[in-house]
Design goal:
By secondary structure, the protein is α/β, with parallel strands linked by helices. It folds into two domains: 114 residues, Rossmann fold, CATH 3.40.50.720; 183 residues, NAD(P)-binding Rossmann-like Domain (Rossmann fold, 3-Layer(aba) Sandwich), CATH 3.40.50. The chain is built from nine helices and twelve strands. Strands 8-7-6-9-10-11-12 form a seven-stranded parallel β-sheet, with helices on both faces. Strands 2-1-3-4-5 form a five-stranded parallel β-sheet, with helices on one face. The longest helix has 19 residues. It binds NADPH dihydro-nicotinamide-adenine-dinucleotide phosphate and oxalic acid (OXD). The site of oxalic acid has 5 residues, from loops.
Length: 315
């Protein structure tokens, strides 16, 4: 059985070695070297060259090495075989850590404490209970639900918004465009874990920010986005921060990545940036997940529906 590895942006050698080590019985081939297109039964990919997968006549499934499939689905020649994305406890836990870390940093006013420390000032800063803050989760999929479980355990009030109605313990849920304003009006801290699709493109804009509630001790609404950069209008984020419509923005994803050095976001005092690493995962865990998926398909078993991409929906 042959697995083609087609990786742009990351270091392909590491993944080739990993798959060979984790599955010595598979023939692992490198898409950068000449290969027989008819040999590839499975492909493990991250942002492969458009058109590459269309030329593989025996391809049975594509394994995307990340949770988001927007870059892959942007290839109009993508063959009509199942696309499997990463859903793995390691990735999920790391995203939840990142979300919780940033919600707590705002809520517990770490910037104010750091500033006071810089002045050698012993000053008590008002910190209300978690229950006085409503965290609004945009996206109640694998990642949104896990973050909700941990934030709920910490006592935050939770609301959530998704395309179809979701029932999530401890979360008041809203669905679809019609219920978006009501969701925003309840939200103090907006945590975005949505995929990049034509529907979500540009939705994090000034109009949306103006609909948020925002808690007094946070200085207004807080935006936390680890979904995708195409969701956000960065000029609107800067304008909203400068106008006081947003108190702070924590961004892991950007319209253009790497974020250009000329971006005003870098130096903005109300912006926290991480370089698309919110869910930096144990690569061996992801590799084992892909190998497990290949073995399941080879045995005629079904893959967890949460991992199988619905190409009509775009995620
Ligand atoms: P899921 O597919 O499990 O969940 C997606 C959620 O978004 C669902 O609740 C879905 O609604 C909702 N959604 C999709 N489109 C819309 C829409 N138009 N309006 C309202 N809600 C919508 O994805 P995951 O939770 O696994 O991952 C979410 C995203 O996180 C990924 O697509 C990726 O872009 C990003 N990500 C970022 C990482 C990082 O390091 N920064 C790492 C991993 C993922 P419904 O429930 O109705 O289907
Ligand atoms: C992603 C990922 O989709 O890293 O961003 O999994």
């Amino acid at each position: 059985m042959t697995l083609l590895v087609a990786i742009e942006n990351w270091i392909p050698e590491l993944w080739l070695d990993r798959f060979r080590r984790l599955a010595p019985d598979l023939e692992v081939i490198d898409a950068r070297a000449p290969f027989d297109p008819a040999a590839a039964r499975f492909a493990a990919v991250w942002k492969p060259k458009p058109g590459l997968l269309a030329g593989l006549p025996k391809l049975e499934a594509i394994f995307n090495l990340g949770a988001g499939v927007d870059a892959l689905l942007a290839d109009p020649t993508l063959p009509h075989v199942p696309v499997v994305r990463i859903v793995d406890p390691d990735l999920t836990a790391r995203m939840t850590e990142w979300v919780v870390m940033n919600v707590l940093a705002r809520h517990r006013r770490m910037d104010d404490h750091r500033a006071a420390q810089g002045r050698a000032e012993w000053r008590s800063i008002h910190q209300p209970a978690a229950g006085s803050v409503t965290v609004g989760l945009m996206g109640l999929g694998v990642l949104g639900k896990d973050a909700a479980a941990v934030l709920g355990r910490l006592g935050f009030d939770l609301v959530g918004w998704s395309r179809s109605r979701q029932v999530v313990a401890g979360v008041e849920t809203f669905a679809g465009a019609a219920e978006l304003p009501a969701f925003l009006a309840r939200t103090d801290v907006l945590v975005v874990l949505l995929p990049a699709t034509p529907e979500t493109r540009g939705m994090l804009n000034r109009d949306l920010f103006r609909g948020l509630r925002g808690a007094e001790h946070l200085g207004g609404p807080v935006l936390i986005n680890a979904g995708r950069g195409s969701l956000q209008v960065e000029a609107d984020i800067v304008a909203a921060l400068d106008a006081g419509e947003l108190a702070h923005a924590v961004l892991d994803v950007f319209e253009v990545e790497p974020l250009p050095k000329t971006s005003p976001l870098w130096a903005h005092p109300k912006v926290t940036i991480t370089p698309h690493c919110a869910a930096d995962s144990d690569a061996d865990a992801l590799g084992r997940r892909v190998i497990g998926g290949i073995r399941a398909l080879m045995a005629g078993e079904a893959i967890d529906p949460a991992e199988v991409v619905d190409r009509r929906r775009g995620y």
